[in-house]
Amino acid sequence: MILTKNYLEKLEANQIYDLAKFVVTENFKHHSNDNSLKDYKNDINSIYKEELHFKDSEVYISRDHSGLIFGAIRVLKWNFIDVLPLQKIFGINPLLVIHKPNINDIYHIGRFAIKKNVRDINLFKQLMVCAITSICKHKNNIAFAECDSKLLRILNLLGIQTTVIGESVNYLGSETIPIVMTYDGLIGFYNNNRHLVNDMLTNTPRPYVVTKNSVANISYNA
Known about the structure:
This protein is 32% helix and 26% strand. By secondary structure, the chain is α+β, with helices and mostly antiparallel strands. It has one domain: Gcn5-related N-acetyltransferase (GNAT) (Aminopeptidase, 3-Layer(aba) Sandwich), CATH 3.40.630.30. Helix 1 (16-30) crosses helix 2 and helix 4 (121-132) packs across helix 6.
């Protein structure tokens, strides 16, 4: 288990490759698979190009004092034009699975990964709070995601309500499930944990201490 001082910050646009490399690397470590070095490089380039294309997105990361990334997550406000991973991987049209009337904004949460052997529940909660803050600003906002089956169980245990909207597929080495989350299903978790991020997140990193609370290794695949 790794315990260290970390820095919570927004990732700059010119550092998106770091996100792609981290997400793919950690998925290779977390999930047993037979992917080759060629597959590894192709996955990094694919994620990098996809994330570079998204303009209205924010990436949050946790680094140690040396700059090593310990955790990451990305939230995207959908413009109804860009092809979301939900569409690309599962062939699901977000507009056809929305049953809630009077939708305000639609978001996509993805690229959630935590470095293997870093088992900290507060780091998990902090990254989630960063991702859902915008969603929790309006009661008619919703968010889509594709997440590892292990992560889905953790989300539910922590009080985040999710709805599965399709069959699982194998993606980046693990069982990946498409879900939707509403304001009502997120606001409780947000209110209970937003204090973990308040006055901590800036464009200039500030230190925070990783605690000894544990959580299983987790990753959002898409």
